[in-house]
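PhoH-like ATPase: structure tokens wanted.
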Amino acid sequence: MAARKTKKTQETKLFVLDTNVMMHDPTSIFRFEEHDLFLPMMTLEELDGNKKGMTEVARNARQTSRFIEELIAGREEDLHAGVSLEDASKGQASGRLFLQTEAITSVLPSQLPMGKADNQILGVVHHLQQMQPKRQVILVSKDINMRIKARALGLAAEDYFNDKVLEDTDLLYTGMREIDQTFWEKNGKDLESWQEGGRSYWRLKGPEVIDLYPNQLLFQQGERPMAARVVELEGKAAKIESLKDYSHQKNAIWGVTARNREQNFALNMLMNPDVDFVSLLGQAGTGKTLLTLAAGLVQTLESKIYSEIIMTRVTVPVGEDIGFLPGTEEEKMQPWMGALEDNLDVLNQTDAEAGDWGRAATRDLIRSRIKVKSLNFMRGRTFLNKFLIIDEAQNLTPKQMKTLITRAGPGTKVVCLGNISQIDTPYLTEGSSGLTYVVDRFKSWSHSGHITLQRGERSRLADYAAETL
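Answer:
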């Protein structure tokens, strides 16, 4: 028995958690599988210091404290031997949680004052490493400087990776796939093709079909270019449908036409009532907001599928904050909605025959159907038959993204727009953004569509700046 215990100790690691990991993800204490966790007293002290307020960080600090309290309630005598995480994590974690039950005095270089919380935690890691020399003791922290200091002292330190959907965002689903003649040859067994309602359809069978996703864009270049979307998937069989050509003026949406293949596919998704969730990724100037607003206006004012457009976004300033803003919820959101106003100006110019009076009337009509809402008041709401646009979605955490998307009631379409290379929220990276999370989780659902817009259509200046600066 003792031999087995020693073997386990050698194999499993001891992770010392920094406060910011738990304030970032309260469930982090259940994410370390068979390894043990150690919480220094300073970590608990910092959790206590951050529990007040209505911010996401304060909520996470309170939730973490609840998890720890549930774990140790009634087990005060066993704390020195550690508390098992198995039951509380429903089998996800089989390690033990250790709390600091005695004072630890560790000798750190004199340049590091022990009064600072970070240095006290480093002292605990140093002490544990000395007490258990045969075991890997690793500090887990979201704070880069803390990790640098730990490594400078010869201590092992890691970032918290469990919140990352993907290690490398280059692997993120783009929503499209290029095919060639060999694809048709490999998967053309029992190939069927037919015309229906002005669209072309194909039914394929073959080994590569299992790698396709619902509503994925398939395109072929060459002498006979072709673009289609995957409509149905059933085992090794797929049904694909040709796209409606929104690049032609006769199919213009509120005067807007698609300027490239990806924009055409985006409009196909935005105008399809069977697709409840659409995510559009792309650099600045790829047309995300313009296409979405044009599609929303046509379906709200002309075909009346939706009763109104609701637009929301995270209010994270790029520079210094401009302070408190006067007025109603809508007026407070106005400075953040410059993108909305700019795009409405473009959409208003599309009706050349209307004249100034006609355009002014159209503008008032449009503004009456577009509501700007703040994220702060979203909990508990339900949107019926609305066209909900979530702008700058890369600044949302996965939890906030879930809160927003679950507001959708019957007949509501949700569109997420963002650029994961422009994240302004602290602690969020391209891999852990709510936008990355939602694209990855929704790609297999038949009522969702995603496309990464590639080409900027704003201006040659904007395109050159995006590439070279």
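Confidence is low (pLDDT under 50) at residues 1-9. The two ends are 62 Å apart (CA to CA).

Cheers.
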